[in-house]
Amino acid sequence: MNRLLILGTALAALLAAPALAEQPNKLLNASYDVARELFAAENEAFIKQNPGVTIDQSHAGTSKQARAIVEGLEADVVTFNQVTDIDFLVKQGFVSKDWQKNFPNAASPFYSFPSFLVRAGNPKKIKDWNDLARDDVKVVFPNPKTSGNARYTYLAATAYAKEAFGGDEKKVEAFVKKIFDNVPVFDTGGRAATTTFVERQIGDVLITFEAETRGIAKQYGTDKVESVIPSVSLLAEFPVAVVDKVAKKHGTEELAKKYLSFLYSEEGQRVAAQFGHRVQDPKVKAEFAADFPAVRLVKVEDVFGGWDKVQKDHFASGAVLDQLYGNR
């Protein structure tokens, strides 16, 4: 009897082993182009708390990433830099319609804004958006057709011009078009634009997220580049979502939720702040307050009427962006 009991227990353990081994422990995070270092650090911190988990990364312009997921990139989660690209995944049936209710702060764990990076000493004396339209200034930022980073730059410049020209749309469009004319090369993503500016030494000013300007200055040294914060910029939130269709297929739904929730934890927020992102957690925000100077930020909702209206008026085929960008 005892022998049968032992054999039965051993058999039960043997049958349970494959089930345990098959527990999902791997995620693919599709993210925006300039977030490589940030998520390398976030992933390391998450894995320390969850041994045995693997987080793989994919980085590119978020519009390109969204299309890649629809075409077969099996990302379990997305950590994007604009809402419209997640909404695109909603329309394609990959993300739930109520995705912004699944995590705090409308599913945005941290934020930034378009800011400037200039050569050391700021030889062209670039201080604000109006300087980008000067004839003697060459501006570097990626293609707004493929990069969420660049779309924020386009919207921030437009928001500035709306204030500067009292809402005169012809003057606003002429201003933005002049900035486009001052761009010597449009790379497909933010990181390539950084390489163009810093390593290829093209351009007088790089426009990218404040978080990226801080990282570049730290990496290359203030003897080569320095940050300039404009008088006003556009709030850039970084939305996150579980790619429900893929996560359900992989059985990673719970792990995906746990991973994205970690970005809101004190540890996850501290990592984000260390990499130049402005965070929501009050304790971490206070801890890094000295690193982040005050800046006036306007919102897409207030200036443009929301992301749906932006998509229709500016980013849809044949809309304002197409008209101003042309065949570059």
Question: How does this structure look, described?
Answer:
With 328 residues, the protein is of the alpha/beta class. The chain has 16 helices and 13 strands. It has helices at 2-21, 36-49, 62-70, 83-91, 104-107, 148-164, 169-181, 190-198, 210-220, 244-250, 253-262, 266-274, 282-287, 300-304, 307-315, 320-325, and strands at 26-31, 54-59, 77-79, 110-112, 114-119, 139-140, 205-209, 225-228, 232-234, 236-237, 240-242, 278-279, 296-298. Strands 2-1-3-11 form a 4-stranded mixed β-sheet, covered by helices on one side. Strands 6-7-5-8 form a 4-stranded mixed β-sheet. The longest helix has 20 residues, at 2-21. It starts with a helix and ends with a helix.
Secondary-structure blueprint of this entry?
Elements: H1 2-21, E1 26-31, H2 36-49, E2 54-59, H3 62-70, E3 77-79, H4 83-91, H5 104-107, E4 110-112, E5 114-119, E6 139-140, H6 148-164, H7 169-181, H8 190-198, E7 205-209, H9 210-220, E8 225-228, E9 232-234, E10 236-237, E11 240-242, H10 244-250, H11 253-262, H12 266-274, E12 278-279, H13 282-287, E13 296-298, H14 300-304, H15 307-315, H16 320-325
Parallel strand pairs: 1-2, 1-3, 6-7, 9-13
Antiparallel strand pairs: 3-11, 4-10, 4-12, 5-7, 5-8
